[in-house]
Design a protein that fits this description.
This protein has eight helices and four strands. The strands form two sheets. The protein has a two-stranded parallel sheet with strand order 1-2. Strands 3-4 form a two-stranded antiparallel sheet.
């Protein structure tokens, strides 16, 4: 989480995105998803009557300084940045269950059913997918 590590991340990411931009008409990058404080299924098993016991404060789940570094690199390369935070953590604190879906299969990986449920939002967030009249070369 240091400033030096963030600077290195941003520089390396900017180089990678610039290289991708040379061979693609457009580049889309997705921000990291929020992280839970602990293994969510294990926590929910231990706290069967309260999903709040397994929630994660937004400030611990989302790291704004890393997001700024990622956004800076994407902007410098002209890449579209998709931020899934509002879908994965729509409230504060970040809950382990959104709607009828278990969000995490551990402390950071989304469950397949939850990820599949986000396809409409993801499609709308990617300009080429949101605009069906866009032609491909």
């Amino acid at each position: 989480g240091t400033t030096e590590a963030q600077s290195r991340w941003q520089a390396g990411l900017a180089r990678t995105l610039a290289a991708l931009s040379k061979s693609a008409r457009s580049v889309v990058m997705m921000n990291d998803t929020p992280r839970a404080q602990f293994d969510v299924p294990t926590c929910l098993s231990a706290h069967r009557t309260s999903i709040l016991a397994c929630s994660t404060p937004t400030a611990k789940a989302i790291k704004p300084s890393w997001e700024r570094a990622t956004a800076g690199a994407a902007a410098a390369a002209g890449a579209t940045l998709v931020d899934p935070n509002v879908w994965v953590c729509p409230s504060s604190p970040c809950l382990p269950v959104v709607g009828d879906f278990l969000v995490y299969s551990d402390d950071q990986h989304l469950t397949p059913p939850f990820a599949l449920a986000l396809t409409t939002q993801l499609g709308a967030a990617i300009p080429e997918l949101a605009s069906p009249t866009t032609s491909r070369p």
